[in-house]
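Justification of computing resources. Each target in the renewal requires a structure prediction run like the one illustrated here; the chain below, 291 residues long, is used simply to show the kind of job we budget for.
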Amino acid sequence: MSRSSICHDQSSPSYEHTKHFKPFDSIDQCLAAGGRLPKNQSKSSTASQVAYASQSAPVITGTGDGNTSNQSFNKAKRMLEREVYPEHRITFYCQAKFDANKNVIWPEGFISDTYESRAKRVEWEHIVPAENFGRTFTEWREGHPECVDSKGKSFKGRKCAEKMNTEYRFMQSDMFNLVPAIGSVNALRQNYNFAQLSSDEQSDFGSCPMKVSNRKVEPPEYTRGAIARTYMYMESVYPRYTMSKQQRRLMSVWDKQYPVTEWECVRATKITKLQGNENVASQARCVEAGY
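Resulting structure tokens:
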């Protein structure tokens, strides 16, 4: 049984990769002890697989754990900066270069009329916004008796969830869900869901084709495949996070429409080595593409 109480059969692709677990003689014993099968896997299924044929809708029916190795958001950012991106210092949405000190070099034609103080720096953006999974935690919604500041005032939200809930910290620190973004782009995106907007909508950042309108965000086409496979990964490994039907449909379309790139596969491999688990959505596509 893994730390997140998932019972993996020996034929599961995640069996060899799960580092922290309690052993049982059988799946039945694991389930009887309070464990559960990987999401959407029936007891009769002995192998966790990605039901993910290139001609069918990309639905992940069985996967391994999410992040169970690092619960520090700051450590996750440091590892990304120093061990994943040192040879690929390019922001996700606007393809701007940045240096080791997180200073951004704006691409030609880029503009930022809001959050100007953040526009010159790189920040680490959650592709699936932290609020989207954070609000499933009681500490986020209601607070906790121990979430009291130095003045005796209670608080809730992200700060309380991060303080009190280990599962939240693991989700927040999952490096598969973190990408470098120009600070002002991160700020304007907020926690809005991705969508396809009207062709009449203009970019909010000049030459960077990132559009924000009516609490919806249309990302550049070159990011959509990676976005889709990140959403699919997060839903597959964290049972408390679920996409809406509309969002899942969009991500299915984007996954098929926008193939993996070599960098997406290199990045996934590097994160797997650091974090100890796989993004099975990207992995399946990388194998298909020969990366």
